[in-house]
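Subject: mismatched residue count in predicted assembly?

I count 221 residues in my input, but I want to confirm that the predicted structure covers every chain. Input:
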Amino acid sequence: MRWVVIVLVLLFQGCAVKNVKPWEKGLLAKERMKPDNGNALFTRFSKHIYFSKEASKGGGGVAGGGCGCN
Amino acid sequence: MIVLLFAVTVTLLLAYQKGDRLDDVISKKLGLEKDKIYVIDFFASWCGSCKKEMPYLNRFAENEKGKDIEVIGIDVDENVEEGKAFQQALKAKKSLQFKVLDDPKGEIIKYFDPIGMPAIYIVKNGKVEALILGAKDHIDTLLHEKTEALR
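Triage response: the counts match. Full output below for your records.
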């Protein structure tokens, strides 16, 4: 029974692996894929609230256009 | 985790590295000639770093025009129309004056299998002599140094 569980866990791990290649990230790099759906006003307010509460800013963006570089 | 590690290892083993020979299929597809140095750049419209690097790459291509060096761009946009529009915008700014091939299905890039983009491969006589991953400052100077060493 234990071996069956181990094999099943390994198999399901395999199912979870979807190796997205760097050149397949066009859709992920789109504006609408951002958490705020490209709403600049929402982002601005969020950043303002974050800055007010945490006295710190930055670290919310992804460099390189989502291409997996730099 | 084991499967993931295995997948990453296999990917790195199969990807072209420095010193590897290109498959004949790819050499034919790209129309590579003997004794000529090729700078193959993989880019896409959604890749910010590729966009930044392009004017410098174009400057290199223009400086080396008529010599034994050719720059080939491979646009890997899955949406060809978006890729073409991106290329047109660059051409209008004279930032893209070299040969570009469209690879929407990833039929060319899958052989190279880079871990990120922009990815530049320097190829001579069907052999990968150097590869540059990620955007670099003044790529034109860097490419000039690397290609001069191959002459």
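Chain B has one domain: 2-150. Marking this ticket as 'not a bug'.
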